[in-house]
Amino acid sequence: MSRLSTFCGAFALSLAILVGSGQAMAQDSAAGGDPAAATSAPAGGGGDVEKGKSLFTNNCAQCHAASDEVVVGPGLKGVRQRTPGEDWLKKWIRNSQAVVASGDAYAVGVYNKFNKIAMSSFPNLSDSDITSILDYIDSANAAPAAAATAVPAAGGQATAAATSESPSNLFTFVLVALLVVMLLVLGVLLAIVSILSKAVTPAGGEGTTEAPFMQRLRDGLTNTINNPVARSIVIWIFLFVVVKSTLDGLYGIGIQQGYAPKQPIAYSHKLHAGQYKIDCNYCHTGANRGKSATIPSANICMNCHGVIKKESPEIQKIYAAIEQNRPIEWIRVHNLPDLAYFNHAQHANVGNIQCQTCHGEIEKMEVVEQRSSLTMGWCIDCHRKTEVNTKDNAYYDKLVALHRKESKEPLKVANIGGLECSKCHY
Questions:
Q1: Residue pLDDT, tens place only, 38-58
Q2: Where do the DSSP E strands lie in 313-420?
Q3: CB atoms within 10 A of CB 274
Q4: Phi and psi of 306, rounded to 5°?
Q5: Torsional sign, CA 11, 12, 14, 18
Q6: Taking 60 as the threshold, does the pLDDT of residue 195 lie above it?
């Protein structure tokens, strides 16, 4: 009994130390988002629905919804049926003010109904482009498919990013599981010892009354504290936990996962990118063109808020910045160290990587936060898994041919130098 009590005391102290230690810092669990995709129902006008979706997103979605919801202008559901005809729509889309100036009754009525807000002109859109947009609108309002399918990204690879559990988390899980098993074994042993003690105790014998459980536990703890072997075990476990927590903290230096600063103007991505489906490139104009995605200028905000919600206190902050000729001091959320080079255009335009892959489901965020760890290991892991988008790109033809001679696996970023130090550090 004394040995069992000593073991119980040592186990109890060890458990208390481990439970009291700091939690291991979690690594990235970045889930690649999947932007809403239109259904591919057959189009009625013979246009390209996918092309129409792209044109609608880049040109129309800032002011119109494909449904019957009113954004800035009217919802476009059933627009073919309620307007004078497709030829009229083509004239209206290319130059709405010219149609209004001609005295067209329907055009004047729409113009007056929506507060005389002039619709942007799109003279560069061809007849087939407009037909594709109208077909996309009809397709988007068609009956939804029975089951939604996952949309691939980056050359056929699904955008759902694999969440890898860090070694620190795995160790903590295994340790807790072992402690639970030990606790169960200890409970069984205590039950067996109690049963055996009662079995060997003479019936009615004097001086054989078993001490209360709490007294036995106190005696066990006292024996443990006075036992040099038990003290050594506890000290070594304590030192191990301290060293582990220190290393976890050192590995976390510079990682700002979960960082969500308060911005000078309360801008909701959930409202703009989510509810109104404004394309990311409309505000972040450099994402497809250059190294930086760029911070939106005030005049981009004024494209809509020159006539919408002008009385809002947050919108008034934009007006004040323009009147005082000073920049809006947005706080950067995603920061890479100066020693690392990252090019948005290479990933978003050439690689066709969706914004959500790195930034998370931005269209669901009221306040933007850093969802991915953005560590070197996280980037390298992505390069090892991501297939190169080689379709219809002659630049990669020779590389693909050379790769197929050596491997049957798809061409990955790692196969074209994606793991070389000089790609990101030079």
A1: 333 344 567 788 888 888 887
A2: none
A3: 17
A4: -70, -20
A5: positive
A6: yes
